[in-house]
Amino acid sequence: MLFNIKQETLPREELEALQLRRLQNVCNRVYSTVPFYRKRFDALGITPAAIRSLDDLRLLPFTEKQDLRDNYPYGLFAVPRDNIVRLHASSGTTGKAVVVGYTARDLENWAEMAARSMSAAGVTRQDVVHVAYGYGLFTGGLGAHGGAERIGATVVPASGGATKRQAYLMRDFEATVLCCTPTYALHLWESGMTEGINFRDLPLRIGCFGAEPWTEAMRQDMEEKMGIDAMNIYGLSEVMGPGVAMECVEEKKGLHLWEDHFLPEIVDPATGNPLPPGEEGELVITTLTKEGIPLIRYRTHDLTSLDYTPCKCGRTHVRITRLAGRTDDMLIIRGVNVFPQQIEAILMECPDLTPNYQIIVDRANNLDTLEVCVEMNDELVADEIRKLQELEGGLKKSFKEFLGVTAKVRLMQPHSIERSEGKAKRIIDRRQDK
Ligand code: DLL
Questions:
Q1: Residue 320 sits in which domain range?
Q2: Which residues does residue 257 pair with via DSSP β-bridges, in sequence order?
Q3: Exposed/middle/buried for 313, CB within 10 Å: 0-12, 13-18, 19+?
């Protein structure tokens, strides 16, 4: 269902005219209110007046996460602190936190974007939405919450944690929608099964899963296990939070990015040069309406491509393809580039394995080593050793064939890899310690 029919179906010409007006406006705002941007524009010898068409976007400077860190906490805010009504922060795995501030209008817009997103997944006011993203400085919980409330659904603000209890809550409150990371959804499903609660027997019908990369194969596995439409939602705290882009249930093929609020580009991660639609590269986003902390050409480091072909659902907004990982997630193993999602795709081809896996990278005698640990399902554990050896051999062969790297494979007992309540920790890279 479309939440905002007019905006979501704007003809491309009108959409682009609106984007240009808003782009000019945001350039004026940051140039006059954020010294950081004024310096960047001046260094390039441009003023906001240089922006006469959407193509002129490429004249503008990039913004990096490091710029937010360098200006911690409030240096990139474009309004007085009095006008900021909420703060969120993302810690990331390294370095200082990144702080983002929202004005009242930013929160309004965010709730609308999240509502559009969840509506695209099929959520309506009749639904009971169980939000198991963490509430707090992380944007997941409150972001999904705001969207579901805006739709008028019944929201259960469960947050992460107390995993056993959650399956009971879902059963008793008759949850029809589950919002959390895909790995936490699997953890909840598993814990439900041990408590005798099978998601397939609940009225549950939709999952809004995001905040971390996952594969198409994992979607199929989850849909089968849980009896739901497992939908992919994307976002990042710097730009807003969940709801920057979302799949529509009609097509499940790419995520509509709300172009009246965000202007996307794909660039070559190495050179920063813009790439044409259809080519994979790094997603760069310029916020068009944000007041608290507008961002010009923000480098997300997420890898995807843009698809402008018309969508069956009637939405005119561009689709980004399923996120293929982050530029900084790429492992270089003896010179070969490997993304964790490629490993996941190979593991998920095998019905005897579960989606719980971990990748351990190390160095022995100055050579990189790669070990893939993956949990078997219960049936396989009971099988004879010969079958396990065959499976291990088969996986090794696939890694060599498809990724070009030699990997050690370790089949693990069910439930032996630590579960996460939020984003999964897939990679352990011990090379840094050496
Ligand atoms: O993860 C916001 C969010 C919450 C999105 C809930 C969706 C659902 P951050 O913690 O700032 O914000 O992390 C943002 O997570 O740059 C991507 O690398 C990754 N990410 C988010 N959604 C997806 C997705 C939230 N659907 C970073 N697929 C982003 C792949 C995703 N990666």
A1: 1-328
A2: 245
A3: middle
Query: Each residue of 20-55: pLDDT tens digit?
Result: 999 999 999 999 999 999 999 999 999 999 999 999
Asked whether residue 305 carries a pLDDT value surpassing 90, the answer given is yes
Number of structural domains in the chain: 2
- pTM, full prediction: 0.95
What single string gives the DSSP state of each residue in 83-116? G--EEEEE--SSSS-EEEEE-HHHHHHHHHHHHH
CA of 380 to the centre of ligand 1 (A): 33
Residues 364, 239 share a domain: no
State which H helix or E strand residue 60 sits in.
Answer: none
Residue 326, ligand 1, Cβ within 6 A: yes
List the residue whose alpha carbon is closest to atom 15 of ligand 1: 211
Gap from CA of 387 to ligand 1 centroid (Å): 38
The response to whether residue 149 sits with its C-beta less than 6 Å from ligand 1 reads no
Whether residue 434 is predicted with pLDDT greater than 80 in this model: the reply is no
What gap in Å lies between CA 67 and CA 299, rounded to an integer?
A: 11
Per residue in 229-260, pLDDT (tens digit) is 999 999 999 999 999 999 999 999 999 999 99
| Same-domain status, 279 and 378 | no
Question: Averaged over 1-18, what is the pLDDT?
Answer: 97
Closest ligand 1 atom to the C-alpha of 423? 1
